[in-house]
Design brief:
eight-stranded parallel sheet, TIM Barrel, NAD(P)_OxRdtase_dom_sf, alpha/beta
């Protein structure tokens, strides 16, 4: 059993985890810290046992608020964070840096912000393509040996890069965008993960809000919301994509559930090694997401959903050109 699965079992965790990013980063103005800490504490009270953050989120602010929310509860939770991509205040921009010394420095700083002496899972947030993956993963392996992290993870990598990395050190989890409207892990990554008992941690399992039906008009989103620069949410593509969601909503009505809960249940049906980590800025939405754990879909319903929002149906890439150049994930042919 991988360290990730062993720790999940140890904390008696539901498979659905909690992505903390939304509280500080990416979706408009950050939630005020006191309110964000209360939301995280409410999430822990309702049963979440796996929380995911990163050095990048909120230019380190997200780790700080997670650390405050964890006080007195650290041992109850599987804590995951990420390194290798951070906001550099001197340059005024995000920087990807996978050099061993940088990863070690970021780990030490993350531990301090999170008020803990170890992380259960530590991801390389992006592969720095100027540094061999073996060098970055090798340093993370040394952090495991020192007890600073429990297991090594990777984010937004291809099957080929995963295979290279795990030759250097076991990889407990790979984080990749996976949802009804983002099927890229099915190209090769899921199979590569299963070769070595590596969990696939699905970020944005609700399609950045799209699959909940809550985003009716992206033009109404805050100017700083990352979705405004994503091709799928553009004025050119979004009306088409929104029409595709009607079929998902129809299935949700048949199942007496919400479209978001249906989307999470679809992921859970894909295998016990698929771990969704939906994020939310709302305690009520966190509660709804966790409730999807109890929803079981039969094979016929899963097959129906498989045929919806397929790569040939969805219009627009998931990232713009600049972000696409940063990742290593396989893409479907045009």
């Amino acid at each position: 059993m991988s360290p990730f699965f062993a720790r999940l079992k140890e904390v008696a965790s539901p498979r659905i985890g909690l992505g903390a990013m939304n509280l500080s980063h990416g979706y408009g103005s950050p939630v005020p810290e006191p309110e964000a800490v209360r939301a995280l504490q409410a999430a822990f009270d309702m049963g979440y046992r796996h929380v995911d953050t990163a050095t990048l989120y909120g230019a380190t602010a997200n780790e700080s608020l997670v650390g405050k929310a964890l006080v007195g509860r650290r041992d109850e939770l599987l804590l995951a964070s990420k390194c290798g991509m951070a906001f550099d205040p001197e340059q005024g921009k995000k920087v990807i840096d996978g050099r061993p010394a940088t990863l070690r420095r970021q780990c030490e700083a993350s531990l301090a912000r999170l008020r803990t002496d170890h992380l259960d899972l530590y991801y390389l947030h992006r592969w720095d393509k100027t540094v061999p993956i073996e060098e970055s993963v090798g340093e993370l392996g040394r952090l495991v040996e020192e007890g600073k992290i429990g297991a090594v993870g990777l984010s937004e990598v291809s099957a080929a890069t995963l295979r290279r990395a795990r030759a250097e050190h076991p990889i407990a989890a790979v984080q990749s965008e996976y949802s009804l409207w983002t099927r890229n892990p099915e190209i090769g990554l899921i199979a590569a993960c299963r070769e070595s008992d590596t969990a696939l941690v699905a970020f944005s399992p609700l399609g950045r809000g799209f699959l909940t039906g809550a985003v009716e008009d992206p033009a109404r989103l805050e100017e700083s919301d990352m979705r405004r620069s994503m091709p799928r949410f553009s004025a050119e593509h979004y009306p088409h994509n929104l029409r595709l969601l009607d079929d998902v909503k129809a299935v949700a009505r048949e199942q007496d559930t919400t479209p978001g809960q249906l989307a999470l249940a679809w992921l859970l049906a894909k295998g016990d090694d698929i771990i969704p980590i939906p994020g939310s800025r709302s305690v009520e939405h966190m509660r709804q997401n966790l409730a999807a754990e109890a929803l079981r879909l039969d094979a016929a319903t899963v097959a129906r959903l498989d045929a919806m929002l397929t790569p040939d149906q969805v219009m627009g890439g998931r990232y713009g050109a600049a972000q696409q150049a940063e990742i290593d994930t396989e893409e479907f042919a045009d």
